[in-house]
Every structure is written in C-alpha cells, then in structure tokens.
Amino acid sequence: MWFLHDVTVAVAILLLLFGIDDLIVDLFAYGRRFYRAFVVYRRHRRLDPSDLRAVAEQPIAVMIPAWAESEVIDRMIAATLSRYDYQQYRLFIGLYPNDPLTRTVAEIAAARDPRVTLCAVPHAGPTSKADCLNAIYASICAHEQESGERFEIFLLHDAEDVVHPLELRLMNYLIPRKDMVQLPVVPLARALHDFTSGHYLDEFAESHGKDMFIREWLTGSVPSAGVGCGFSRRAMSLVASTRGGQPFNSSSLTEDYDFALTLNYLGLKQIFVRFRVGGELVATQEYFPDEITAACRQKARWLIGIVFQSFVTTGWRGSLGLKYALYRDRKGVLTAFFGVICYVLAALWLLVKFTPLGPDDMGQSQFLAILLGINSLLLFNRSLQRAICVTRLYGWRQGLISIPRQVWGNVINFLAASRAIRLFLSHLRTGIPLGWDKTRHSFPDAARL
C-alpha cells in the first residue's frame, strides 16, 4: 500500500501550500481591518449618506442584458425604478429578436415609464452576454446623439438583481475619481437545508467580505462581478476604442472579468466598496441556483472565462501582485479537484485500515502525520474564517451550517470544474464558439423586498 501513502503525501503537500496561501490572505485581512479601525477611522470620519446626496447628480446608464428573462424582467424593472434614490438615470434593456416573451414584457414596462429604453440586439440569440452588452452600448451612443443627453457612468446589472436605493448615489460619489466601482454581491438566503444555493452565500460572503480588499491592496485591480459594477465614461470609451467600438469581449464567457482586467492593464483606477447605511450593506442582492445542475452550469461558465479564456488571452501579464491575484483566481480549478480527491483518499485509508484488504502493518509515516496535523489546523481555520464571514451577513445559524455545507460546495465545484474542462477542450478541438449557457433566474416577491 505504499502507493496510497505516497499519493497522500503528494496531495497533502499541495494542500499545505494552498492552505498557507489562504492563511496569508487571512492575516492581511485582519491587519487591514485593525489598521482601518484604530488608525484610519480615528483620523477621518466615516462616509455618511448625506455626503452622497451633497454631490451633484451625473447621468447614469444602467445596462441590463436580457435573454429568456420573461419571468423576472418586469418585476426587476418595477422594483429598480421604485427603489433608486436618484433622478438622472435611465435603464437600457438588451433584447433579442427571437425572444418575443421577454420583449413583450419589457415593452409593457417601457410603456409605463419613460426612463426605460429597449435596445435591439441585431441578431438572434443566445449569443453571449458581452454581445448583448455591446448592443446596449451602441444603443446608448445612439440615444446620446438623438437626445443630446450624455451619460457619465455606466452600470451593469442582470435581470434578477435587487438593487439598493443608494447604489447610484454611491457610484456618483466615487466616479470619475475611480474608473470602476464594484459593490458587494449578497446572495439571498433560502432555507437552511438548501445547501446548493447556500454554498453561494458562503463563497460570496468570504470573497466580497475579505478577499477583494486584499486583492485591491496588492494589485490595484478588482474583478468585476458583472452586477453592481459601475464604469466611468472614460473607461468605457477607452476600452471601446481599442476594440472597434465594442467595449466587451464577445468571445469571453466572463466579459465582466475580462473588462476589469483590461482596465487594470490600461492603468485605470478600480475600487471595491463596502458601505453600510444603518447596518445595511449597499449591495446587489439576488437568488442563485438551488438546483445542482444549474449551479454546475453557471460555475462551469465562470471557470471557463476566468481560468481558461483569461489565460489564453492574457497569460500572466502584469505586476508581481497581479500575477499572484491571477494565480488565486486560476487555482480554483485545481482546488475543486483536490477537495474530492481528499474525500476519496480518506475513504481508501478507512477501507484498508478497518477491512481485511489492508496489511497488518499499514500505517502513516511521521512526515505524513505531521502534514495531516498541520493541514487539519489549516482546514479548521479555513472553515472558521468562512463561518465568521457568513455570520456577519446572515447570522449565526447560517454561519454554523456553512461548515458542513462546504462539503457539498466542494462537490459542486468538482462537477463544475469537470464540466468546464470538458467544454473548453471540446471548443479547442472543434472550434465551435462557446455560447451563453443560460441560468434560469427567479426574483423575490414583494414581501422579501
């Protein structure tokens, strides 16, 4: 059984390296938290909603791509129009000619409110989200020429998003001093026993509650989440000028990530902002998939864009700090496999230890025992840090359940990574473009808003 021992050692060494990497981020995060609490906020007062309202409003274009969104788009538009504490904005809805249901619903919404503009994608869908966004951008430019209105801020949202009332004011306050502003994404919680949608709570709570700040500090770069993300006019115009008038990369499945990385390469300023009003976070809320098939399809799309397409397009360009951030983005496809590999190895060790299949002298080397001990501590810390992040947003019940929920999250990530690799290899082999692998969306009822 020497083979099982040696494989376990190899996996344990890699897990140790990944664990140390995460521990370093934890330490930086706590250092930053203490520094801001005991130094920054003792010298400077915290931002207040009155500060946001004191700034003159800039016109804002809210870009909402829609393919097969007839079930949610009307409620999203109505909720957005009623919630925004802002005057100078317009919603631009991207629609496909072969999606009559979504178009009909959107036309009714547009007839009710002049702040809604419908944008026609010139060809049948689904193409890619970037292609739809480019059509929206072209419509915005045409609207500016016809009306004389000039938009200074461009904001991305999806058809299932629940916006915060002060979102536009916060964007208006920061742009154009910053060329890109990303607000947190806060998944809406379902029942405690719903581990599939629940694992999104865990991942976003940690990523948008801790990791993004460290990434911004190390690299000056912030990945766009595709929603609750605003860009200056300069950013949109500059990227569009380098891409034949189309700012978004239509060949990428994560056009938001690609766009933000491009801004970093162009030297434009980006920021991730967590701003609370009365204890409530100014963030984008939405439901994430509660079915494993839908979750795997969505996360496979993210992995293809962030890991594979990004690597093919940009390689390891950038500063040392950005290279480290790219490594952390791309290691996700590896850690997705290692989680399940660890479960398999643990099962094999139990099998050889407690059944006649194993030799009498089967045991661990001292080196392996030390590795497993250190990794156990790192795993405990990983679970604890995630539970802390979840508790801050959702309370102690969700925080506690996040610990066993990580196992199910690892299974989903493994299946998603497997699907991503299969689809990308098929794309390389056949040359067939990767399409918009649509996720079915839901929108909260009035009682939840």
Please provide a written account of the structure:
The chain is an alpha/beta fold. The chain has a domain of 243 residues: Spore Coat Polysaccharide Biosynthesis Protein SpsA, Chain A. 59% of the residues lie in helices and 9% in strands. It contains 14 helices and eleven strands. The strands form three sheets. It has a seven-stranded mixed β-sheet, sandwiched between helices. It has a two-stranded parallel sheet with strand order 6-11. Strands 9-10 form a two-stranded antiparallel sheet. The longest helix is centred in the N-terminal third of the chain and has 42 residues. The chain is globular, with a radius of gyration of 23 Å. It starts with a helix and ends in a 19-residue tail after the last helix. The mean pLDDT is 93.
Layout: helices, strands, pairs:
Blueprint lengths: L1 H42 L5 H5 L6 E6 L7 H11 L5 E7 L4 H13 L3 E5 L8 H19 L5 E4 L10 H8 L5 E3 L2 E3 L7 H25 L9 E4 H10 L12 H11 L4 E3 L3 E2 L2 E2 L2 E3 L5 H23 L5 H11 L1 H23 L11 H29 L1 H35 L19
Parallel strand pairs: 1-2, 1-4, 2-3, 5-8, 6-11
Antiparallel strand pairs: 4-7, 5-7, 9-10
Helix pairs in contact: 1-7, 1-12, 1-13, 3-4, 7-13, 7-14, 10-14, 12-14, 13-14
